Amino acid sequence: MKVAVAGCCHGALDKMYETLELLQQRHNVRPDLLLCCGDFQAVRNEADLRCMAVPAKYRHMQTFYRYYSGEKKAPVLTVFIGGNHEASNHLQELPYGGWVAPNIYYLGYAGVVRFRGVRIGGISGIFKSHDYRKGHFECPPYNQQTIRSAYHVRNIEVFKLKQLKQPIDIFMSHDWPRSIYHYGNKKQLLKMKSFFRQEVESNTLGSPAASELLQHLKPTYWFSAHLHVKFAAFMQHQTNSKEELPKATKFLALDKCLPHRDFLQIIDIEHDPSAGDSLEYDAEWIAVLKATNSLINVTQSSWNMPEKNGLHAKWDYSVTEEAIKEVLEELNHNLKIPCNFTLTAACYDPSKPQKHVEPVHSINPQTTEFCAQFGLTDINDRIQQAKEEGSVRGEYEEEEEEEEMDSTGSAEEPSEYNTDNSGLSSINPDEIMLDEEGGDEDLSTCSVDPSPDHPPDFSASFSDIRIMPDSMAVSSDDAMDSTNEELEKSGVSKQVEEKSLSERPLKRIGGNENGNSGIKKIKRRNQAIYAAEDEDKTE
């Protein structure tokens, strides 16, 4: 089947679906499924806009509300994950996933579903070490801290995904897995985004949590967005035993949805011809949710997931075939996800603006039904209960603004990861803008990008294939030039360049692992970013 993959659409649904329609008219290509890798911006009304971490000047309604109201319907089944520019109050209603509009499905904080036999997983948000070990405690109305922390990845979601044993075909994350840039055309990447150089050379660009999942899950495809540049890589994984067949992951990062940008990619995926056309639950994932339900935390307290260190009676929460069978029996072997979308908030009405409506913390009937069916905890209900009991405060204790963007994590509690990629390794120029200046007007923008409107297309230009080391550190193996050939076999390079740019073998990187010298560099980046944005607006 044909799968369309999009990067950050920033609420421009009309533009995205019109592009698909144009693709069909010109090339007779009609995707069966559309995947979006975050910054979807499912904004229903003015209250939702106030829950989105962008400056006020970027709070535009865009077009999602028309799909939410029923005025329009997505012409193709759309599955998306959350990014760092979202209506967090809306997505928070669906922690386990659900329909945000007819034919548009959100995967939740983390999730796995199936479509035509293809197994699709994803994790929402971006990585910040100082929030990684906390629970999902945030709820609207958000303050200056929680409007950001609400979209930060938590260790419990990574832990759940690491319990999976069955193969994953497609996985999505918003920020890139750390070190992935060493497996593609790094030279061309740095030519297009020169301000990535410091983090690439110090190996701090990207999410260490996503790298951990990439190493564990070894999906056939991994798609990301966030950095607003198209980039491809091919990663061959190490095998754990001589009997295990070698696995490889084809990585592709997508550009943002803008005119003249190549923000969509069409790939061919093998599927089960006998499978139906409905989106389905994944039985193993449901079993994992049931097994890990007792680990749910809705407090700001930091805690580690169970591990084999002598401190936990149980550390393996992977599920047995019997547990998966029980889920199938509960569903009478009918895995079809019910089309139970309902409106949970008033829809934007251009003729009746409501600029001063405050967001409220809502319980979504879809989540209530899902939790009741599988015996799970409704996280939002637990948060409300905890607030009533006084065990959860709605605001952080006062902390300096710099702690939010401290890329080294020096002001934070110890993490299982040595460095924080918050401002540097997830280098979204938008996120840097948000943290440096403070205040409501300084929440991150959703349309800043230092690239020109017509960047060169290098989506499958590679310089080397490397065996992924256990630590995801930089490899010093000799460079190889066979990546394009591998991708041509898989169908990824259908719309990309044929030639490959050579690059010298990678060397191990020394120096400051924590990236303490990066603060001044960020400010210089911002100057370039602002200048690029002004150029975009004048063209």
TrEMBL record:
Residues annotated as region Disordered? 387-539
One GO term of the biological process aspect: mRNA splicing, via spliceosome
Zinc listed as a keyword: yes
Record field: compositional bias (Polar residues): 416-428
Q: Where is the Lariat debranching enzyme C-terminal domain?
A: 235-380
Q: Which GO terms describe its molecular function?
A: metal ion binding; RNA lariat debranching enzyme activity
Q: Where is the composition biased (Acidic residues)?
A: 396-406, 432-443
Keyword Manganese assigned to the entry: answer is yes
Q: Which Pfam families match?
A: DBR1, Metallophos
Extract the SMART domains matched here.
DBR1
Main location per UniProt? nucleus
Where composition is biased (Basic and acidic residues), the residues are: 486-506
Name its cellular compartments.
Answer: Nucleus
Please give the superkingdom of this protein's source.
Eukaryota
What GO cellular-component annotations does this UniProt entry give?
nucleus
**What are the entry keywords?**
Hydrolase, Iron, Manganese, Metal-binding, mRNA processing, Nucleus, Zinc
Name any cofactors this protein relies on.
Answer: Fe(2+); Mn(2+); Zn(2+)
Q: Which family does it belong to?
A: Belongs to the lariat debranching enzyme family.
Q: What is the name of this protein?
A: DBR1 enzyme
Species per Swiss-Prot/TrEMBL record: Circaetus pectoralis
